[in-house]
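hiii, so i know i said id send this last week but things got crazy w the move. better late than never?? heres the sequnce for the chain we talked about at the cafe, plus the structure i predicted for it. fair warning i was half asleep when i ran it
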Amino acid sequence: MARIYPFFLALLYTACSPSLEDQIEKLAGKGDEFEEAKKELLVATDQAVQPLLESLQDPHLAAARPEIVDVLSSLLARLDDQQIFTVLQEHLRDDPDPRVRARIAYRMGVYKRQEAIPTLLEILKDKDSEVRYQALVALDLLEGKLNQAHKEILKKSARELLADPHQGVRLEATIRVENFVQDWIREARELELKAQLQEAEATYHKALAYSPTSKQANFRLGLFYFANQEREQGLELLRRHGLLLDVPLLNDAPIIDGRLDEAFWQQAARADTFSQVSHYHNAVLPSQVLTTIYLAYTHEAFYFGAHCYDAHPESLVVESAEHDNLKAHQDLIEMHHQPQYGQLNYSYIGINRNAIITDAWDTGNDWNRDFTWDPETAVATHVGADFWSAEYKVEWGQMHFPQPQPGVIWGFDSIRGFRGREYSKWPLSHGGPDEHGLLLFK
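okay and structure toks below
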């Protein structure tokens, strides 16, 4: 049998294989054909560049053009070919197809193309909402590469985009705005530590001049006043922004049955401004599920109630059946009490829909919880047609639960776990004991 040499095998393969142009056309397809075409073009590396660049100009390949962008972006990351970047930059500014502009914007962020930052800032004014959205996403991915001039442009544009009709644009703009607010807050807190109080206050006001409704900035300014001889001004600022609850002293105690149907709860302090907990950003974004908490006290005990809206309460997730063994990935309501406000120590109390409770005392030192702390409590839950609710009572005078006098301030927050998919919190979206809300006992 005649021997066939590798050279001739390669020639035979090339002759029988689809051309690069054929592969580019297949980018408009789906499934295996699309994936195979993309793989072949990436394997061809620099040989594919010119056909791809030419195809990007071809109106007959409209369906494939966003995918052509993806392949060119991948080749740019491999080859660092300036010609590819130049062409993509031109299309980012001027391509008539918003899908192409949006795809290029996103890829510039994914591949950390710092030289694209000026154009990405320009297209924040693009007439297409998806392009604006992808430009914001890309600029987030490139955040560490922004110089001061870039940041000033983004600072102005992000605030303007808070009113954008596109939900995704508003969300990304809110996150960018809050990032800038956090920069001022960090600066102000450092000034506080140095006892430069006038400068700290002025810096907080810079943050609020930029974003007057920022809960984080109003929270920090309120605490600043509270801690620096302007208690009432601080409390009023916190109260106005839903960061402080005035807890009333009531005479008649409710029956602990989980139903929240007595007049007692109508007189209690209430809060329903829960925000999504996120590990990726600092923005305070409203929760997707409605939660309302109620707080009041008598001379004998502290009372907490929670009404958790749920369109499908038959699907409530319950993974724990033992005291002090609540699992995080289920439906539950949690709270933290901080009787000595300003210190790191606080209680942790979690309740699931079966009224199983976990209670512990947290020293604030790397989640060092003492689960032997078991105060005498009463707890009950109820499941309705479109909600579940909980009632909790703890008597005064037990360890870590001193009876407060009127005018006393405690720290407090509450977290709701929804199906283990979303966690929401009052008063802010994240933070430790130094970001608890305030309770003022009346």
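btw The CA atoms of residues 295 and 304 lie 5 Å apart. thought thatd interest u
miss u guys!!
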